[in-house]
Amino acid sequence: MSAAEQSASKLKNESAIPAKTGSKKESKLQLQLKVPKGTKDWADKDMVIREGIFHSLSKLFKRHGGVTIDTPVFELREILAGKYGEDSKLIYDLKDQGGELCSLRYDLTVPFARFVAMNNIQNIKRYHIAKVYRRDQPAMTKGRMREFYQCDFDIAGSYDKMVPDAEILALLTEGLTGLGIKDFKIKINHRKILDGIFKVCGVKDEDVRKISSAVDKLDKSPWDIVRKEIVEEKGQSDETADKIGEFVKLNGSLTEVLETLKLKSELTSNELASQGLEDMEILLTYLQAFEVDNYVSFDLSLARGLDYYTGLIYEAVTAQSAPPKDAEALKQKKKSDDEDASAYVGVGSIAAGGRYDNLVNMFATATGKKSVSIPCVGVSFGVERIFSLIKARESKLSKEIKPFATQVFIMAFGGGPDWKGYLPERMKIAKKLWDNEIESEYVYKAKANPRKQFEASEKSGAKVAVILGKEEYQEGKLRVKRLGPEFANDDGELIEIDHVVEKVQEKLAEANEAGFDDITRLLRNL
Amino acid sequence: MSAAEQSASKLKNESAIPAKTGSKKESKLQLQLKVPKGTKDWADKDMVIREGIFHSLSKLFKRHGGVTIDTPVFELREILAGKYGEDSKLIYDLKDQGGELCSLRYDLTVPFARFVAMNNIQNIKRYHIAKVYRRDQPAMTKGRMREFYQCDFDIAGSYDKMVPDAEILALLTEGLTGLGIKDFKIKINHRKILDGIFKVCGVKDEDVRKISSAVDKLDKSPWDIVRKEIVEEKGQSDETADKIGEFVKLNGSLTEVLETLKLKSELTSNELASQGLEDMEILLTYLQAFEVDNYVSFDLSLARGLDYYTGLIYEAVTAQSAPPKDAEALKQKKKSDDEDASAYVGVGSIAAGGRYDNLVNMFATATGKKSVSIPCVGVSFGVERIFSLIKARESKLSKEIKPFATQVFIMAFGGGPDWKGYLPERMKIAKKLWDNEIESEYVYKAKANPRKQFEASEKSGAKVAVILGKEEYQEGKLRVKRLGPEFANDDGELIEIDHVVEKVQEKLAEANEAGFDDITRLLRNL
After folding, report:
1. Which residue of A69, A79, A423 is in closest CB contact with B42?
2. A464 found inside a domain
3. Is B304 annotated as a binding residue?
4. Structural domain contains residue A39
5. What are the Polar residues biased-composition ranges (chains A, B) (predicted)?
6. At A497, which CATH number?
7. pLDDT tens digit string along B224-268?
8. Fewer CB within 10 Å, N or C, chain B?
9. CB A427 to CB B166 under 8 A?
10. B238 and B286 in one domain?
11. What is the pLDDT of residue A305?
C-alpha cells in the first residue's frame, strides 16, 4: 500500500466512525433504507430461477392455445367490491388524490372477468403472468408475500360439459411436472356436491357459505375443532355436524369416492349434488384420456375460500406444501417471532382454481348490460411458493446458473511507454459482436492489466476470450480462445481481425455443446 | 329457427330492453365497466407487438452484460421524496390503511439507486422492464399514459471517464435500429457545460436550475417565448437572456459544436464547462469507435427536467416524435377535447437518460451510512411511445402476426348412429403433442362437425391438422395434413397413430420454413 493509499484508507475509516454514531442518534429522523413490508427485491440467481419458471409456464400456456392480456395494476375500487368475501379487507386502496377511487388488484381473475364483460368477449383462452397485492400478514420463508406473482390460465366460453375443466387439470399437471415438481397431488371437489351435502345434512340455504368456509379449515385443523366451530359458532345441531363429518372425511381416488357417494341415495336424490356427481363422472373419462387421473384425489373437505366458484374446485399440494406434523409444537416454541414461526408451516397450495360461471355476468348486469352466460374455469400457479420449493430442494441449481448472459470477453494485452490500452479497439470488436447478437463485454478502463481483465471475464461467466495483443493487433490479427480452468494453457487461435465473428461463433458452439444453458431444461431435470 | 329458438330469442330481446332503459336511469348508481383513467388493457395483436419489443430489448440488455432485477411496484413514500422536482405532485400515493406510507414508483431509476445503496453494491449493469405510474394528463394516442412501461439499462460503478456513457449511447442506437426505427437522432448535452454557460452569462447559482428548466422548453416553444420567461418570470437581465440565447441556439454534430465552444474563451475558462468539454472530447473518440457518432447531435438547448442528472444527458427523437409544424393550429381547433388535441403533438422522446453520480450517495448518507461514490449512467426506453410509432407506421404488421402460438389442430370426422365424436381420442393425441412441446388445440365439443372444426383451426392459425377418421382410427391410423388455402385439396398422409409426433414435427418444419415466426425479426425488418 502506498502512502497515499494508506492515508486514503485511514480517512475512510475515520469518516465511518462519526457516520455510525450519527446513525444511532438520529435513527428516528432518518430515512429507512428498506422495501415496504411484505415486498422484496428480486435479483441475481433468484431472478434467473423465477424467470425460468415464467418461461416454462408461458410456453405451457401458449401450447394450450392461450393468448396473453395485460390489465392495469389498479382497478376502479367498485370493480373489486363484493368479490372476495371476508378477504376484501386485505385489498390495498390508492389514496384519494382527486378523480377516481382505485385499488390494487387482489387477483387476476376478477380483472379478467371485467375484461371479458367489458369487451363482450364470447370465448377466450387467456393467460396472464403478473403481480397481485394483499395486505396479509407476510411470511417470507413460506412464500407468502404482500406483493406476489400469479400465473393464470383461464378458459371462458360455452363448451361441452367438463371439457375445459379436464384440460385445465391436464395443464396444471403438465405445468408442475414441467418444473420438476413430481410429488404433488391435486385435491378436487365440486361446489354443487358440497352444497348438496350441506343441504342433505340439514344446513339452511343462508348458512351454506359459512359452513363451507368452516369446512375449508380442515387442511389446517382437526375435525374436532371444525366441528366445534360448526356447532358453537355457526349454530348447527350436533346431528347436522356429525352428518357433515361423515361426508367431509371422505377422500381417495375419483373412482372410489364417486362409487361411495353414488350409494348414498339421500345425496343422489338432491338435485344439486346429482348434477355435481354427473360432472365428476364425465370428468373421470377425460382425465383418463389425458392420463392425469392418478394425480387427482377427490377430497370432500376441500371448499376454497373465494365467493365466486360455482362448480369444480381444485388445489395442488406437495408433501412440502402440507404443514409438517410438529407444526403446532414449533409454532408454540417460536411464538415470540411471528415470521419465523410460520416458516414451519407448509407453503400451502402451489396452484389452485375452479369454475366460476357467474362472474362475467355479474359485471354485465351490474353495469346495465343484458344478462350473458360466459362460463369460466381457470387455474392460478403461485410462483413464489413454487420458487420456495425449488430453491429449498435443490442447492445444486445455484451453482450451475449465472445471472449474466455474457458469452465473450474482449481483452487487450500490451505494455511499454507507448501502450494506450486499445480501448477504442476493444470497443470496435465489441460492436461487431453485438451487431451479430453475441453477448460481449470488456473492462471499462483505458488501460487494464491482464489479471484484472481475466478476473472480470471469470466473474461474467464468459466462455470465449478475444485477445488484442499489442503487436499482433498492429499486424491485423487477434486471438480467440476458450475460457475456463481446462483451457488455462491454451493460447487460442491467432486469426485475421475480419474473421472474429465467425471464429467466436465456432468456439461458442463448441463451448455451449457441453454447457448448461437452458434454465427451463435445468428446472425440469432437477 | 325452431319455435323454441324463436321464443328464446324473443325473451333475450325483451330482457334487453328494460336493462337498457335501466342503464340510463341508474347511470350514477351503476358500476362503470371501465379501466381507470390513463390506463388500458393490452390484448391481442398489440400485446404480441409489445412482447416483441420487450423481447428485443431484453436480448439487447443481456448482450451488454446486463442482469435484471425486480423491485416492488410501491416504495416507502420517503424514498421517492425530493427526487423529481416539480413532478413530485404526479406521484400516486397508497391510502394510509395502517402501517407504512407507500407510493407507486414514478420511474425505475430511484428504486434502482435505493437498491444499490441498500445492498452496498459497488458496481452493476442492470436492466429492468416494468411499469411506472404518473398522475399526468393522459394522451393515449401519443402514448402518454398514467401506467406505462419503462425499459431501463443502467451502469453503476467507478470506471474510466465516459466509457460507460459511450456504451449506453451505443446500446441506445442498437436498441432502436434493432426495432426497425432508423430515422432518429440522439440529442446530447452536458449538465456541467450548461451550468457553466449559465454562470458565464451571469446567472446566479441559486437560479441555475430554474433557468435550466425554462431552456428545456425550447423543443416545444420558440426562443422568443422562452426568453420572455427567463426575463419576466425568472428575473434575469436582457443581457443575460441574450447571451444564453446565443449559446442554446447552438446545435450540430459533436465535432462542430465542440469546435465552436472551444473558441469561446470565456466558457473554456469556466471550471465546470471546461470539465464538461473535456468529457465530450473523450466521448467523441468512443462514439467513433462504436460508429454511432452520426446518430448524435450536440444540442445546447437540451436540459432534461429531472433533478438528479449531473453529467451527460440525452434524448432520442424521431421525425414522428417531434411536434408537426401545425401542431399549435390543430391544438386550437381541437381545444374542446383535451385528449384528441394532444394526438397532434409528437410522441416526445422515445428514449432518454443521463448520468447521475450522486443519487446512490443521497440514499447512503440520508440513512446514516457513510458517504459512497457510486457514479451511475443509464437510459430508459419508452415502450408505449415506440409502440405507437411502430403501430402507426406499419399496418402490414397487423396482417402477419397472430396472438396464438397454436401449431396443430386435432379434428375428428365421422357419422352414423354410433358416432360419438372421438373426444377422448382427440384428447389423447393432444396430450402426446403437448408432452412433446407442440402447441395443439381441438374443439371443446363431444361431437363437432367438420366445418366447425376447420373454422376453429383457421381462427387459431394452426399450420397442421391431425385428423381422426372414424374408420381409419379404428384401424390404428390417422391423417396429418398441412393447413392453408394452398393445401385445400391435399388429403395429407395416412400414418400409424404411434408416428403422429414425428410426422407432425416434419410437417411443421416444412410449414415454418416458409412462414413468419420470429416477431423480433419481423419488427426489425419493417
Report:
1. A69
2. yes
3. yes
4. no
5. 1-10
6. 3.40.50.800
7. 999 999 999 999 999 999 999 999 999 999 999 999 999 999 999
8. N
9. yes
10. yes
11. 75
